[in-house]
Amino acid sequence: TLVLLLVYLFASETLAVPASTTPHIKVDQFGYLESMRKVAVIVDPQVGFNAAEAFSPGIGTSEYQVRRCADDVVVFSGTLQAWKTGATHAQSGDRGWYFDFTALTTPGSYYIWDTVNRVGSGRFEIGPQVYDSTLKQAVRTFYYQRLNMEKVQPYAGANWQDDAAYEGPDQDRNATSRWAKGDSRTARDLHGGWMDAGDTNKYVTFAESAVIQLLEAYRMNPAVFGDNFGIPESGNGVSDLLDEVKWELDFLQRMQDATATGGLFLKVGADNYDGQASPPSSDTRARYYLPECTSSTLAGSAMFAAAGLLFRDIDAL
């Protein structure tokens, strides 16, 4: 699979591209399935930060084309359709046109070409698997959010590698209560889980949306979430999406029942936003947890329940 991917990437670099491109011709950068509606949007800024970047597209008959990247051959021609007869869209501040090329269904690499201005769009793909890579990378973002795990090749790209974060004294494996800092009697092992989107703290309540939506996505279409997304658990016979959810659930179990009530701590992390370090492994600040509360316990109950409905039918889980 890796060899085929490298061959594809090398070949894609040799494909033709338009001599001049413009950001005013907007295509779906993920690509288009063969049978779906295919529309490019052309914009002429009128209001806003880019109002001076006027663009007058070719609006005559068949002045817009789809060209094949491999050899610049024109495979489709059409005429722009104005949005609301030339009105300015209030939110974007742009006038707009549609270029509908739904009739083109042949798989391949293409770009849109404005024959009047002699500028093109970026490259896009048509084919049955245009969303496959995007789906894999979307799931892999959770791998990059993992704490207390090193990010190394082949799982992490060269620009995203890092040592395991928050493994030091008074950090995640020996966190103490925010209300009894450094008191060893309150120390708990709270390693694992995902960092939050805006900081490196780990929140039980904020995980609820992600965990339940991932589980629901798998429940609705398990076949698309394979065991080959390029995370350390890939190839173990379990969907990588479920492996990723389990990483978070294992952390949530460590956040549970610290005082024999069944409740979950609210969060673990630094007690302020000063000194946030990059990469995360360079952050040596002490880490603390906040006590059990109703909201975190409800969130944890919901996540465990949703996971149980799927995990109970998978022997490895």
Find the count of extended strands (DSSP E, 2+ residues): 14
Q: Helix coverage percent of residues?
A: 10-25%
**SSE arrangement, N to C:** HEEEEEEEEEEHEEHHEEH
Strand content: 15-25%
Explain what the structure shows.
With 317 residues, the chain is α+β, with helices and mostly antiparallel strands. Helix content is 24%, strand content 18%. It is built from 5 helices and 14 strands. The strands form 3 sheets. Strands 1, 2, 5, 6 and 7 form a 5-stranded antiparallel sheet that branches. Strands 3, 4, 8, 9 and 10 form a 5-stranded antiparallel sheet that branches. A 4-stranded mixed sheet has the order 11-14-13-12. Strand 3 and strand 4 form a beta hairpin. The two termini are 27 Å apart.
In short:
By secondary structure, the protein is α+β, with helices and mostly antiparallel strands.
Pick out its properties.
317 residues; alpha+beta; five-stranded antiparallel beta sheet; 14 strands; elongated; disordered N terminus
Task: Summarize the helices and strands and which ones pair or pack.
Elements lengths: L1 H12 L11 E2 L12 E7 L18 E5 L5 E5 L2 E2 L5 E2 L4 E7 L7 E7 L4 E2 L3 E3 L5 H14 L30 E2 L24 E2 H17 L19 H15 L10 E5 L18 E5 L1 H18 L6
Parallel strand pairs: 11-14
Antiparallel strand pairs: 1-2, 2-7, 3-4, 3-8, 5-7, 6-7, 8-9, 8-10, 12-13, 13-14
Helix pairs in contact: 3-4, 3-5, 4-5
